[in-house]
Structure formats: structure tokens, C-alpha cells
Design goal:
about 230 residues; alpha/beta; Rossmann fold; nine-stranded mixed sheet; 6 helices; about 25% strand; globular; binds S-adenosylmethionine
Length: about 230
Amino acid sequence: MLTELKVPTHLARNHPALRKRGAVRTGKLLIEKATRIAGVGTLADKRVLDIGCGTRFTTSIINKNIPIGSYTGVDVNKSVIDFLKNQVEANDERFDYAHWDVENALYNKTGKPFNEQSEFAIDPSRRFDLIWMFSVITHQYPEETSALLKILRHYAAPEGLLLFTAIIDAGVDKFIDAFEDQPLMMAAYQNEYLLELVDSAGWTVEKSLPRDTENHPPLHQDVLLCSVK
Ligand SMILES: C[S@@+](CC[C@H](N)C(=O)[O-])C[C@H]1O[C@@H](n2cnc3c(N)ncnc32)[C@H](O)[C@@H]1O
């Protein structure tokens, strides 16, 4: 079992302000908060699927010794996944990773466009107790959000939960991509519209929490916790 992971700076996928506060530390705080919100007590017996995983949570789990049943990370960034496969998956059986080469206007411009029918990077027979996406829906068009939510529904165990963050803005008419010259740098959703996408993908919203106001910069945007419908 690995006890330390060092990530090269160019593979850290977080906002510089967050990195300054310590990616490992904020990752630990977020995992603890997600665990509390999901009401699961500990992740020691949970199979976690992290979409848009980057390197932060892997590093926190290893370096802060956070108990976890298993952790599966998926990302569109091949360099990140190659690093994690070589350094982590190969040395610690709790972890596995998959590269999903789909298009994202901010993170993977050359990937293939995807929809709910697209082949996903994970074996379709696998099921997970907790699926999470932190700062991922913040960078998706509505069609992509809808497709992701539908694809992930298939991977939830019968009592499985999905927790994700998004920017919810009452002043938005359905959806806005905030910066014209930086596609998907900041995608914001109207609450009712996001709830429609969640509902039509087969999830029930169990809890919703506002963005973090205790930390600067905030630890997370608005949070939705969903169960299988
Ligand atoms: C802002 S970073 C957040 C990383 C990590 N979730 C965290 O909170 O530390 C967004 C991540 O999502 C990944 N990503 C974007 N669209 C994706 C998609 N459709 N599927 C999987 N990963 C995606 C990016 O490559 C990037 O690593």
C-alpha cells in the first residue's frame, strides 16, 4: 500500500488559488465533507468512482491515509491518467484509472464528442457505492452533463449515491457559459434546469447544499447528492 505520492506540478489540475491552499489538504477536507453529506461514516468499505479525477483526491487518500475500499478515477487528460496508472495503480491494488478520450472545450479539445450512447471507459459490469464529480459539471455543456448523468446512472450500485458540484445561479436562463473567450471555464446552471437534467437521467436529489462560504477560495460550489430513482 502506498503511503506517499508526489505529483509533478504540471499534472495538478486545480485552480492555482486552490493549489496555494494545499491540494492535499483541500482534497482531504472535501473527501471528509462528501462522506458526511453522503451519510456513509467511512469510505473504508466503499467503492468510489471519481469522474474528472485529476490527481488531488488520489494524493489526499494516499498522503493523508484516508481509508477507502477502492478508488477508480476517470479523466479526459491522458498525461494525468498515464501518471496515475504507472505510479499508483501499479503499486496499490485499491486504485485503478481509465482515460476517457471525449471532447471537452476546456480540457480535451481533440477528444470525440460524446452522448449517452457513447462507450464509457469503465467495464459496464462494474458497480460503485459512491460516484463523485468535483468541479467537472462546472466545465460541461448541458448536453454533456445530461449524457454524463445518464452514463453514470448505469454504474451505480442499487443503493449507490452520486455527489457532484455545479455552479447554480438563479439569474441564469437555463445555462450560461460565462466567458465568451474561454469556453467552459465557468458554466452555470439554473437550478430548475439542472434538476430536470438530473431527474431525466434517472436520479433523485436527496440533498442540495450551497457553495462553501467558510473557506477562501471556496472549497466547493453548490453540491447535489442523488440516489438511484
Ligand atoms: C477543475 S478539474 C477538477 C479535478 C478534480 N475533480 C478535483 O476537484 O481536484 C476538472 C477535471 O475534469 C476533467 N474532465 C473534464 N471533462 C471531463 C469528462 N467529460 N470526463 C472526465 N473528465 C473530465 C479535466 O480533465 C480535469 O482533470
